[in-house]
Design goal:
Mean pLDDT: 95
Strand content: over 45%
Order of helices and strands: EHEEHE
Largest sheet: 4 strands, antiparallel
Helix content: 25-40%
Shape: globular
Oligomer: single chain
């Protein structure tokens, strides 16, 4: 079993319901591809250290993921790169 931590930033121009939908959709991407989100953490809206895509702040979220293979992680990465709602993401493999 592999463990990953996924941090992503959702653009600040979305409403509260839209932000929740983005988080839910990306959580479902992981579960539909055979992995499990073991912990989901909202860090709230924070200022960015520098502008990203003309945004000065964003909503931070962290997922802890358990996966048998990297299929779900690759799909999350692919869709996060083309999503207009996620302005930045980082996937880290956690060593046990």
């Amino acid at each position: 079993m592999r463990h990953y931590e996924i941090m992503f930033i959702v653009r600040p121009t979305l409403g509260e319901d839209e932000v929740k939908k983005v988080v839910k959709d990306f959580s479902e991407i992981i579960t539909k591809n055979g992995s499990k989100v073991t912990d989901e953490q909202s860090m709230g809206q924070r200022e960015l250290a520098y502008e990203i895509k003309d945004f000065k702040s964003g909503y931070y979220f962290v997922f802890q993921v358990e996966a048998e293979d990297d299929k779900a992680i690759k799909e999350f990465d692919r869709l996060a790169l083309i999503s207009r709602d996620i302005i930045r993401h980082l996937i880290t493999k956690v060593e046990d």
